[in-house]
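Saturday, quiet lab. Running sequence design on the structure tokens for the scaffold JK sent over.
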């Protein structure tokens, strides 16, 4: 233990991504690092998809038809390109590089995501946050924020959730969280002060990066257990390295995740699927030219709860 009384983990755990098709028949391929068997959560972060850089002329871009969410918040963050967002709250907005769009789908919301005609290269991350039990039926909400780039020795930061290096995002969440893009200078090292009560994950987008000395390749995520007061990021590349730093206090609740739903029991998932297929609860997305995504068939065995790895 250190002076905070928190056990300091032995090292950095490296999580590798798997390729997943996203969005139905016109699916684009994403790299998914959360959830996986080795780790379901980092703080309340429960889902991390990483995609691109994809040439839209080759891939067809993103076209995700109306689909539902419950029990979570979605976080959209782009490095390049532009995505048009519509939801059943009536929101019509755009996701642009360096700007966070956060959507709360507590009791239920539906939305679409479509890359715009002017987008030539699509590149970014899509993240989910599990809502704690007391807020998991929160009303629909949409928030937008464009963080000001912050220079620290060896890096440029954009803090889109929580606090880092003295900068605090105004975006509201239901548990303490950290989310920041960290662009590390070529051949540079940056040491960041962090909350020792948080666990952290560093997702590498581009570059040869070490987290507290552990090498991470692009699309890998390095996990750091609670107890650290600093994290040291080193770029061994001769060009800037882009990373995304996530964090939060360990999420102690067990959750059931299936398709686009987060719940606490198999029965709740069954009900959410039924509500979506029957056209109730999640509302209607206006302005999208196409039919909603049908829910996949449920597994033949009950879904199991999963929680943090201790």
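Result came back. Writing it out in full:
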């Amino acid at each position: 233990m250190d002076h905070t009384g928190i056990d300091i983990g032995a090292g950095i755990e490296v999580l590798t991504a798997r390729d997943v098709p996203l969005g139905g028949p016109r699916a684009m391929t994403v790299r998914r690092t959360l959830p996986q068997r080795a780790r379901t959560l980092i703080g309340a972060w429960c889902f991390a998809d990483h995609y691109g850089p994809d040439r839209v002329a080759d891939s067809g871009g993103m076209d995700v038809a109306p689909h539902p969410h419950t029990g979570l918040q979605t976080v959209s963050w782009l490095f390049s390109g532009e995505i048009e967002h519509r939801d059943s709250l009536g929101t019509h907005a755009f996701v642009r590089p360096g700007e966070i769009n956060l959507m709360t789908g507590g009791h239920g919301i539906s939305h679409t995501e479509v890359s715009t005609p002017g987008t030539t290269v699509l590149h970014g991350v899509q993240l989910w946050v599990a809502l704690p039990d007391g807020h998991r039926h929160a009303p629909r909400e949409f928030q937008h924020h464009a963080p000001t780039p912050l220079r620290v020795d060896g890096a440029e930061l954009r803090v889109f959730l929580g606090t880092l290096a003295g900068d605090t995002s105004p975006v509201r969440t239901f548990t303490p969280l950290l989310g920041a893009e960290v662009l590390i200078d070529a051949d540079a090292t940056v040491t960041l002060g962090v909350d020792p009560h948080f666990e952290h994950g560093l997702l590498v987008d581009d570059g040869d990066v070490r987290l507290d000395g552990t090498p991470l390749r692009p699309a890998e995520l390095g996990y750091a257990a609670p107890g650290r007061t600093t994290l040291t990021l080193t770029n061994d590349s001769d060009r800037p390295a882009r990373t995304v730093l996530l964090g939060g206090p360990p999420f102690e609740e067990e959750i059931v995740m299936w398709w686009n739903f987060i719940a606490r029991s198999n029965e709740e998932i069954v009900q959410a699927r039924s509500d979506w297929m029957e056209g109730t609860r999640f509302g209607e997305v206006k302005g999208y030219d196409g039919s909603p995504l049908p829910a996949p068939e449920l597994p033949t065995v009950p879904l199991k709860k999963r929680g943090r790895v201790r």
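Notes for JK: The CA atoms of residues 86 and 92 lie 5 Å apart. The first strand starts at residue 13 and ends at 15. Ask whether to fix the surface positions before the next round.
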